[in-house]
Amino acid sequence: MVKVNEDAPVLAKVEIEIEADLDTVWNIMADIESWPNWNPDVKDVVLHGDLKPGTHFQWKAGPGKITSVLQNVEPPHLLAWTGKTMGVNAIDVFKFEFVNGKTIVKEEESWEGLLSRVIHGKLQKMLEESLESGLKYLKAEAESLKD
């Protein structure tokens, strides 16, 4: 399993509790090309193949295009990828658990590279806000589908 780099210059970890079943939450996240439908931070996604390790996808979120490669796809508990944009190498890991009738989503992301060392403070804040925002949109989408 791919893991974030705990020693990376930029590292964020967030968690959210969603009032929806595990399969609902997984299906929303696993439908990568539909991310722009529920997450306004994601402008465009193209998945080049099936949802499996080694499959590439390009997407636009924030200032630039990101090229990512799926690393771990273990329905409905783990979805992880690596990505590159503007000199930043990212590792993004989502873990999904069903606890007491709710889905707990934990996301961890690390950024490495020259840019992440040079403007560490600004990128740290940007990453934390981005992850928190994304999980809030995921929660809203999953909870809107539960009934």
Structure write-up:
By secondary structure, the protein is of the alpha+beta class. The protein has a single domain (10-145), classed as Alpha-D-Glucose-1,6-Bisphosphate, Chain A, domain 4, CATH 3.30.530. 30% of the residues lie in helices and 44% in strands. The protein is built from four helices and seven strands; from the N terminus they run βααββββββαα. The protein has a seven-stranded antiparallel sheet with strand order 1-7-6-5-4-3-2. Helix 1 (22-30) packs across helix 4.
Helices, strands, pairings?
Blueprint: E1 10-18, H1 22-30, H2 35-38, E2 42-48, E3 56-61, E4 64-74, E5 78-85, E6 88-99, E7 102-112, H3 114-118, H4 120-145
Antiparallel strand pairs: 1-7, 2-3, 3-4, 4-5, 5-6, 6-7
User: Mean pLDDT across all residues, rounded?
Assistant: 95
Spatial order of strands in the largest sheet: 1-7-6-5-4-3-2
N-to-C series of helices and strands: EHHEEEEEEHH
Task: Give the biggest beta sheet.
Answer: 7 strands, antiparallel
* Percent of residues in helices: 25-40%
Please name the CATH architecture.
2-Layer Sandwich
User: Using DSSP, what is the number of strands?
Assistant: 7
CATH-defined superfamily: START domain
Shape field: globular
Number of helices: 4
Q: What is the total number of structural domains?
A: 1
Q: Could you give a quick summary of the protein structure above?
A:
The chain is built from four helices and seven strands, in the order E-H-H-E-E-E-E-E-E-H-H. With 147 residues, it is α+β, with helices and mostly antiparallel strands.
Task: Write a concise keyword list for the protein shown above.
alpha+beta, Alpha-D-Glucose-1,6-Bisphosphate, Chain A, domain 4, seven-stranded antiparallel sheet, 7 strands
